[in-house]
Structure prediction request, 559 residues.
Amino acid sequence: MIEILESRIAPAAVFQYTDVDGDRVTISSTKGTNAELANAVTLSNSAAATIGKPHTLTELTLGSKFANAAITITGKPSTDLSGNSTLMGQGIVNVGEINAPTIDLASVTVHGDLGQIIVGSGSGTQAGLGSLKVLSMGDYGTSTGAATVDSRFEGGVNSIAIAGDANGVLLRAFVNPGIKSAQIGSITIGGDLIGNGANDTGEILGATGIGKVYIGGSVIGGAGTQTGRIASDMGNLGAIIVRGEISGGAGGSSGELYSPNNIMNVTVGGSLIGGSGEASGIISSVGNIDKVTVQGSVLGGSAISTGGVSGKAVGSIFIGGALSGTDFSSTSAVDHTAFVRSQGNLGSVTILGSVTPGAESGGGALTFSGAIQAGQTLGAVSIGGSINGNAANPVTISGVGLAAPTKKTQDPAIGSVTVGGTANFAMIMAGYDPAGNAASGDAQIGAVTVKGDLIASDIIAGVKTTTAYFGGGSDSVIAIPSGATTDGIYATIGRVIVGGQIEGELGNAVATFAIEAQEIGAISEGGAALALKPGPGNDGFFIAGDTGHDVHVKEFGGS
Prediction:
């Protein structure tokens, strides 16, 4: 709960009026005179007496006399409109617009809803506004007199505190030449950040970055583009806490956390949900992301890059529920829904639930749904439930390996994969980039543990195929980097432990599957170890099962 307090600094100027429900409203400023403040006020019903007649403060226009002032607008129930002893009003003041485009202000406090604020001199190095404290923003749209609900902070704002919702507003910190930065130092919203059908609504945008962000409710994307969004033009995002969910909508980049640089820790108390707009319901950074915790599920949408996390390098990901795509009908090619992706290293991924890709009908193609991918190394992957891929949409877990191995014999691409249930149609691929391209013939996997059955799945390290399926006889070591078969780095799988059975695809006599590398340390099925010869390039056999001899174990030569 954010408490809005009246300023304890003695005001230099005071103006009072009666608002529409009977509150006696006091506007105070630490700069200027009573007459100057009165001239700055625009009321509805302006021809009527200030006290005793209903008014809305449609605009407060502040010029140079109020530079660096602290502005406070509060209301108290009064008998002004009743004419008797009955107090009227709720102590809440709704304000249309505060317009101070040529000056900086120390603070603005409104004990009610504010539609719009434009503040900041656009010169020097100090923030255009020190602090903004309001009960809500945008709940009344433009009905209280604001020209729009787009607020602008020239040179930034040190802190914003909104006790309730930020509803359909744009809160933007601008940077001009000569200003070193235009950041939003911190922002706290007790309720929801809500986008709607118009573009750039429910959006917080800091030109050179945003510090700490706390959202007590949810971040809700709308039908407009860039709605329900927290982003920076060219800076970092600090630690972000969203107690509710982050949900994308029909608009592109809706329900999005985005930085062109880095994002610190992100905590989502609910789920991260993709929508039908591209890049909706995502946490995305061109730079690094320290850590992401989603207590609920990560759910893909029906468009490209929905319901996921993407960064250059990501420290760790925790998902308390499932990583799950959706079933939808489309004729489009849709990739990366319900996904975790890093262009560089990805420290670890923990998912307490299952991974399910969903499916696309209507003639379109769905790829990398339910995918976990690293452009370099992928650490430990732990899935508490099952992998529920299907023939059209397998679940991909992949990593390329080190950009430049420091040890001649070591190039870890995937540290480990642990699945608490069964793995159906899983592709665990070392040496493959996030686009699915074969990228390294030196890549290695530490260990793969599946406590249930391993069904219709591939576990591959440094090997490619020229056919539709691995294990069909045309597989070979990836010829990247040059000399991958002679550089002394073996593409290896440390061990594969399957608690149940290893099987192919029931009823499909064409499809084959494989466990392939240059060297495989150990394989066990149902507690029994399979006989492997020591050393690289020595093994090649099919695992017999109920579906036939269609799971190929093979080691490839080279050194």
